[in-house]
Design a protein that fits this description.
With about 400 residues, this protein is mostly helical. It contains 12 helices and 13 strands.
């Protein structure tokens, strides 16, 4: 009989549902509620009740994520308003956040368009590379590619730790040292983090696809090795979150969503670099992470719990981005090892998303729900709530299921 989840009709059903979610809910929501037609750019915050917070701080991060999402959507489904929205986000990114003097992206601006936090957060620069590379794919706008390359060169010049390896967290507008390097209030003030390295990896992968430069390829090969030898615990298949300069772990917290997201992003990165030995090593790691995530974080409803430490589970809510990345990560694990439980898990995650995270009344997805499935009431659009995780999951899941 074969795998029931691989029957053509079942697979087609999931592909149809996933593409409908992207094209009839997520993308229309952001075009309707995310774009500020009056003042330009993107709204900094839209509440759960769809009320715009007009004075909300605006982040370069949201503009890059909208830019990537609508560029990627247009590449898959060439639709005029997708490209228009991508261009709107790109122009906002350059007008409000691009540092004409020092290069790179400011972290945030005020609602009226003035630079607010001018620090250079490496995490934010990585998303600039990721998004502008994607925009170049669909527009062939050489200026966008040149800006992505410029950020890469700035990171390699100012942000790379040439002694211990990896990249430091944050800098001043002029690329000088900063005392407070935290990405957000919930993060530790340490010079290195898994989260930043993960998204530099992601950005470099996308840039390498459109700019196959030898220096970039070597930087990416080195970064993959850093992820495998410094950030990954090879015994537990968990990734550390915060580190000092010498890569000593500064917390025993475990983020299940980051673990499974790293699994598939590392696999993708190694494939683009093209080193056969590194690809084989990464595939083993991806399967190891999938196994541990499956065993330790899946709840009875098929969704991932949020966080743990050495003593066990510490956060039990179900975050939107975690479920999206996990669905892709488990499907990737199935494609590597053909263990049917990972395919089943990926599709059950989609079932959970449809049942609990998709907001049938207000549109888009709830940011998170409690373990019992109650929405938290957090904003639909914010500095961190964006269309990139769920939009990308839809694109990845549909592509991968079609390929099967």
């Amino acid at each position: 009989m074969g795998c029931p989840y691989m029957q053509p009709q079942t697979r087609l059903d999931y592909i149809t549902r996933i593409e409908q979610e992207l094209r009839e809910n997520i993308l229309p929501f952001w075009m309707k509620y995310g774009v500020d037609r009056e003042r330009g750019g993107l709204h900094g915050e839209v509440g759960a009740d769809l009320t715009v917070k007009r004075d909300a701080e605006r982040g370069a991060l949201l503009s890059t994520r909208v830019l990537w999402t609508f560029s990627a959507a247009h590449r898959h489904y060439p639709q005029k308003d997708y490209l228009q929205t991508a261009t709107w986000a790109y122009e906002d990114l350059i007008k409000r956040f691009w540092d004409q003097e020092n290069g790179g992206l400011y972290w945030s601006g005020s609602a009226d368009g003035k630079p607010l936090r001018t620090r250079k957060q490496v995490y934010g620069q990585a998303f600039g590379i990721y998004a502008m590379s994607e925009y170049f794919k669909v527009t062939k706008d050489r200026t966008a590619l040149d800006r992505a390359i410029r950020i890469f060169e700035l990171l390699e010049t100012h942000c790379r730790d040439t002694v211990h390896g990896g990249y430091l967290e944050a800098f001043t507008a002029e690329w000088g040292a900063l005392e407070d390097m935290r990405l957000s209030e919930v993060d530790m003030n340490e010079p290195k983090s898994q989260n930043t390295h993960l998204h530099v990896l992601e950005g470099y992968t996308n840039l390498l696809r459109v700019w196959p430069n030898d220096k970039l390829r070597e930087a990416q090969r080195t970064l993959i090795d850093t992820m495998l030898t410094r950030i990954l615990d090879a015994k537990t298949f968990h990734l550390g979150l915060f580190f000092d300069l010498q890569w000593n772990w500064k917390t025993d917290r475990i983020s299940f969503g980051h673990d499974i997201e790293a699994a598939w992003l590392l696999h993708e990165a190694a494939q683009v670099v093209g080193d056969a030995a590194q690809i084989a090593r990464v595939r083993e790691v991806a399967l190891g992470i999938a196994k541990v995530t499956y065993e330790q974080s899946l709840d009875s409803d098929g969704a991932l719990l949020y966080e743990a430490d050495a003593k066990g589970i510490t956060q039990t809510y179900k975050e939107w981005w975690v479920q999206a990345e996990a669905a892709v990560g488990f499907l990737d694990a199935y494609q590597i090892g053909r263990d049917e439980k990972y395919l089943k898990t990926a599709l059950h995650l989609w079932d959970f998303i449809e049942a609990k995270l998709v907001d049938r009344k207000g549109g888009e997805w709830f940011r998170n729900v409690s373990r019992e499935g109650a929405p938290s009431g957090e904003p639909k659009i914010s500095f961190w709530k964006c269309p990139y995780h769920n939009g990308r999951a839809c694109l990845e899941l549909a592509d991968r299921l079609k390929a099967l």
